[in-house]
UniProtKB/TrEMBL annotation:
<dbReference type="InterPro" id="IPR007110">
    <property type="entry name" value="Ig-like_dom"/>
</dbReference>
<dbReference type="InterPro" id="IPR036116">
    <property type="entry name" value="FN3_sf"/>
</dbReference>
<dbReference type="GO" id="GO:0030424">
    <property type="term" value="C:axon"/>
</dbReference>
<dbReference type="InterPro" id="IPR003599">
    <property type="entry name" value="Ig_sub"/>
</dbReference>
<keyword id="KW-0677">Repeat</keyword>
<dbReference type="InterPro" id="IPR013783">
    <property type="entry name" value="Ig-like_fold"/>
</dbReference>
<dbReference type="InterPro" id="IPR050958">
    <property type="entry name" value="Cell_Adh-Cytoskel_Orgn"/>
</dbReference>
<dbReference type="InterPro" id="IPR003961">
    <property type="entry name" value="FN3_dom"/>
</dbReference>
<dbReference type="Pfam" id="PF07679">
    <property type="entry name" value="I-set"/>
</dbReference>
<protein>
    <submittedName>
        <fullName>Ig-like domain-containing protein</fullName>
    </submittedName>
</protein>
<keyword id="KW-0393">Immunoglobulin domain</keyword>
<dbReference type="InterPro" id="IPR013098">
    <property type="entry name" value="Ig_I-set"/>
</dbReference>
<dbReference type="GO" id="GO:0005886">
    <property type="term" value="C:plasma membrane"/>
</dbReference>
<dbReference type="GO" id="GO:0050808">
    <property type="term" value="P:synapse organization"/>
</dbReference>
<dbReference type="InterPro" id="IPR003598">
    <property type="entry name" value="Ig_sub2"/>
</dbReference>
<dbReference type="InterPro" id="IPR036179">
    <property type="entry name" value="Ig-like_dom_sf"/>
</dbReference>
<dbReference type="GO" id="GO:0007156">
    <property type="term" value="P:homophilic cell adhesion via plasma membrane adhesion molecules"/>
</dbReference>
Amino acid sequence: MKGEGEIWASNHLIKLLIAPFFSSFASTAPPDITVEKTWVHASEGFDIDLACIVHGDVNSEMLWYQNSFLLDPTDRRSMLSKGEKYTLNIRNFQQSDFGNYSCVADNALGRTKKYIEVSGRPGPATFLSPAYSNYLDRYNLTYTIESIPPLDEIKLLYRKLMMNETYQHPGSWEDTILVPTLTRSDATHFIMSHVIRGLSPNSVYEVMIQARNVHGWNEVSDSRAP
């Protein structure tokens, strides 16, 4: 019995030492939070998840807002948490669900807020084709765009870069409006190709893509130098 009492006392003593140390460490600063995505594509009838990560302080309280209005759970909306990850799930997305969302984490030392835009506009283009062309005077540009609704129009912009070891001087933009031939790569993305012709051999070009669906134009993609 004496041995059992010593083991119990030892375990009890360790618990007393650990608990105050953890509590003090977890509350030395306002919450540090990040979002998985600052921009989320959505469409009516689909489900989406917005995720916010709280780093270090698992005791923080998390609140969700849409356009500055506090959100409560409903039959289509639920708030979930697992460890450091907090998720706002919206089912059967409706037109009224579009907007700017924020996740707000509170603890005893302060409040931190991060923002997420939920939009029906297409996402920015992601380029898939290699940086170098196999041809002297043309380039086969392949790219993917996130959009649940069909794409109505594609704007292709490209320009020649005059450059050497000491400077870089861009030429004028050439732009072309394309009626896209739509091929789905999955339920939320289109994959497309377009051959840019009449290019100068042994040259460098900068390319950008913009797309429009029923909700409007997306942000211009990051430039690509093929």
